[in-house]
Every structure is written in C-alpha cells, then in structure tokens.
Design goal:
Length: 222
C-alpha cells in the first residue's frame, strides 16, 4: 500500500520542492507532495534547475497552499524549516510529524542549491524511509461473551476494516475457512482511523480469527 507524505516549509519554493521531487524520484511506494505555510506562488529557478539537471523535475511541481491538498490523506508530515515547524497546521486526523531543518538557499547562487539538493538526499530520504517502515498496524484479539472483539490501532484506516468485512459478507474473503464463516452471525465495525474496533458475533475461537487476520490480503498489502 503506497504512503502519502507532505513536505512543509515557509515559501514552498526551494527546500520543500526539492524534497518532494527527491522522495518521488528515489523512494518506491511513497507519494510526496509539498506546500508552504506562506507560499511564494513560484518555484525558485535554481531549485528547478538543480532538479532538471538531476532528472528529478516534473512539470506539475509548483508552490501552493495546503488547501490544494486537502483531499489527500497523509501518512507523514515533514517540516524542513523552523518556521514551518512552529506554525505547522492542525490536521483533522492525527498524523505523525518529523522535523529535519535545512538552510534556506533562497537568494544565493546555484552552488548553494546543489549543496541543498545533496543534503536533502543524504539526510532526509533515509529518515523518511525509516519512519514509514516503522509505522505499523497493531491487532489485538479478545474473546468476549458473544464472540470475538478485535482492536486495530496504529496505521489503520477504518475503510480497510470495512472492506475486509465486505469481502467476507460477499464471499470474496480468502483468509477465513468456510467453517469459520458459518460460525459468525454478525460483524460490526466501529471507531475511526487509527483506532478501529471489529466485533464478530458467534461461536468462533480466538485462534481461528488470528489465523484469518494473518492471511488477510486487505490487511497485509505491501
């Protein structure tokens, strides 16, 4: 499953644009976007030049506010300047955040942009990859009076669990044996992204459900 990353700085003209481009070019399975807390509205020509020189430029890269990205669900927010860190927007849902500051090359010559490019590639990319790999979904299975309760926490979206339940209800589920399916009378999903609860009513064991969860393609996508 691909991850979405947001890179924030003040003007969204140099550092965050370079970081966005480097992540998209070098890290598979990660979609990077950038914006500014006070965007300049244009990409610095030297930032564009260093990206073009290294084959990392895309015509779609531009300076923008966060409003333009409001429909994207991010898995990680990165601030690359102190001002962006201090004024980082509040998101509707909890999102992991990290800060890795870089000197602003704006107003300097092209050599400074080459230095920034190399620093972001050297420092930021390994950190982003490490943080995203460490993010995981936690699954806790409990036996209750009328069945099984499963708590999903961490990197989990409610829609994932809803999709899994829908697959079971429509016969598309391959993780659960037919015998186990027959024991379940009802499945109910509650909670929100990051903390989802699934209740299975029926005479089903904890061990059966743990085996099914381990085999679920919806939960265990790469």
């Amino acid at each position: 499953m691909s991850k979405n990353v947001l890179v924030l700085c003040t003007g969204n003209s140099c550092r965050s644009i370079i970081a966005e481009a480097l992540i998209n070019k070098n890290l598979d399975g990660i979609n990077a976007y950038s914006s500014g807390v006070n965007p300049s509205g244009k990409v610095n020509p030297n930032a564009k030049k260093v990206l073009e020189t290294n084959g990392a430029w895309r015509d779609g890269y531009h300076s923008k506010t966060l409003d333009e990205l409001r429909d994207i669900e991010f898995d990680l927010v990165i601030t690359v300047c102190d001002h962006a860190k201090e004024t980082c927007p509040i998101f509707p849902k909890p999102i992991p955040k990290i800060h890795i500051g870089f000197k602003d090359p704006n107003g300097k010559d092209y050599k400074a942009f080459k230095v920034t490019y190399k620093e972001i590639k050297r420092v930021l990319l390994p950190k982003v990859e490490k943080v995203l790999k460490e993010q995981k979904m936690n699954k806790n299975v409990f036996k209750i009076d009328n069945g099984i309760k499963i708590n999903f926490t961490g990197v989990v979206k409610k829609q994932q669990i809803v999709k899994m339940v829908e697959n079971c209800a429509t016969g598309q589920c391959e993780c659960m044996s037919d015998d186990t399916k027959k024991k379940i009378n009802n499945m109910q999903v509650d909670g929100k992204d990051g903390n989802v609860e699934l209740k299975l009513n029926g005479d089903v064991s904890k061990e059966e459900i743990e085996k099914a969860l381990a085999k679920s393609k919806v939960l265990n996508k790469d």
